Amino acid sequence: MATTSIAGRRSQSDGAPGQEHTVSLDDWRNGALAFEAEVGKAVVGQPHVVRLMTIALFARGHVLLEGDVGVGKTTILRAVARALGGPFERIEGTVDLMPTDMLYTAYIDEAGKPRVDPGPVLKHGEDLAVFFFNEINRARPQVHSLLLRLMAERSVSAFGKDWSFPNLVVFADRNRVEKEETFELPAAARDRFLMEIGVETPHDAEVRRELVFDPRFHDVDRLVGGLSEGVLDHTRLGAAGAAIQQAVATSQTLEQYVLGLWDALRAPSSVGVRIDGVDMDRLILGGGSPRGVGALVRAARVRAWLEGRDMVLPEDVRAVFAPVMAHRIFLDPIYEPRRERILRALCGQVFEKVPAP
Amino acid sequence: MRGRPLAALALLAGAAALAPDMAAAQILHRSMTAPRPFGVILGDVFTLSTRVDVAPPFKLDQSALPKPGPVTYWLDLRSIEIKEASGPNGATRYEIAGEYQTFYAALEAIEQTVPPLKLVVIAPDGRRVEADGASWSFITSPLRPIVAKAGGGSAYSIRPDATPIRPSLRRNEIAAAAAGAASLLALGLLAWSRAWPPFHKRPARPFAVAARAVARQARDGEPGWRSAALSLHRAFDAAAGKRLLGDDLAAFLAARPAFARFEPPIRSFFEASRQAFFGVGAISMPPEELLALAKNLASAERAS
């Protein structure tokens, strides 16, 4: 068994964890908190969603928002995009959307000649910061396939060349009520999303009253337009994310803990997880990919940094576990209809059963 | 005479004491009937009947007869009854029945004599003739217990003791059993409510176990401190019913107020544990404090 943590060995080979980042990381943290505060002006009652979005930004991951109709998914994404700054583009998923519609815009110009201009993805060039895919499950698998490459490699091929988007973050949302004329995201595409965040109607009565009666929330354009733009420098987010990953340590105990969580997710009955009405031995078809667990650690590091620590605690892992891992778990088809309830119980019980430290 | 058939014996009393010349002329006949003259014991009642035939014109002077009352120190005359009838040859026949009771306490069988009646007859012209009635002697016996005959069977032998009556106690037994059962039930309920044995199986006491483990391990250098901290973590897990992380402490202390007064050391323990297990590995809590915390938690757990 390794006697030092992976993080420790890595920092030994890299030299000391970048001391030059320390000051700037503190500034970045202040920036991140300011960013959260700015988004919070438009998004009330969803602080944990905003926190997870911030974590995803600094972990350089794409986010899929899921929730009922009208709970504010689009507003959250627009607010985040606005506060983040940088070029922002959106596209609505429809059943007849073709992959090329994302890359090209074809039209007849004033001279009556057909013209093909760069589409939504390419319009802003390689500086695109946020690409927002609305109602992603209405688009067909061909589109998902292109999106897959865009998310995974941050690059596409168009106009005879490769385009690279180093600062790109893809936000998508999906309503979970409607199942007609929708296409379930393929497992590979879902795995590319760092987080799948469930957005619920706020429970707090005061917040709900404010949402319904305050006219500020009735005009989303003005609400989002009122936010300061570019609280964070989107071009340096990648570097900041990398610095965070370097600076926040994971101890050997934590590494074992995460592996324990992973094992528990793959074989829940081995740690004594019991869910009513579920045969635990046949529940799980796939319990999280290595990429998924890597994303979990990445997100946990960012969360620890946001909390002002230089070490990852089990609490950090717990805070990001369900959003990062739940959509990467594949259940036996007979349990899929009850997926949400089962996964909530599973994630909860895994943390109740796996000892920490 | 108690229980005995009267043996009427007619005694023809002699008139030796009477004047032969006069009394014979007026008192024609005297006789006395008495019971058997033996076997008389203290307290026996017997009747002496005297028949006197008196020639007319003489009459028996009844006032000369003795009145009921003590006759001697041992003999009472209980009553005296006189019947007058006509006798043969124009005579008047008197039947005098005297009922006596003897109180003679004989020490041995002895003969006793009842004094004779004084019979006085008078004529209308004032002539008067006296005569004595018959005296009666009898053998009086001391009171002696009846000696049981060998072989038994006597009507007078002592009978065996009567079998004692044994009334049924079933009702009382049932009532006592019911009361006993109710008492046991009440005792059981009380024991259950107060957690006396055998209901003393309280929820497991993880901190008591942890305190022993910590006492064993804590001073054993850094590895010992780490395993002691792990023991304490497992106790927190068991007490919380799940894996307890540092961020959950507030909820845990709210749910288990018995531990709330140790909040500062608990928090510093979790902070030290974070540093030791997830941080740089430095141990910031001395083993003594760890030990004291484990003991305090164990005693708080006992009290809760």
Automatic annotation (TrEMBL), chain A:
Residues 1-23 are annotated as: Disordered. InterPro entries: AAA+_ATPase, ATPase_AAA-3, CbbQ/NirQ/NorQ/GpvN, ChlI/MoxR_AAA_lid, ClpA/B, P-loop_NTPase. Pfam families: AAA_3, AAA_lid_2. SUPFAM superfamilies: P-loop containing nucleoside triphosphate hydrolases (SSF52540). Residues 59-203 form the AAA+ ATPase domain. CDD domains: AAA (cd00009). This is MoxR family ATPase.
Automatic annotation (TrEMBL), chain B:
Residues 1-19 form the signal peptide. It comes from the Bacteria. Keywords: Signal. This is MxaA protein. It comes from Chelatococcus sambhunathii.
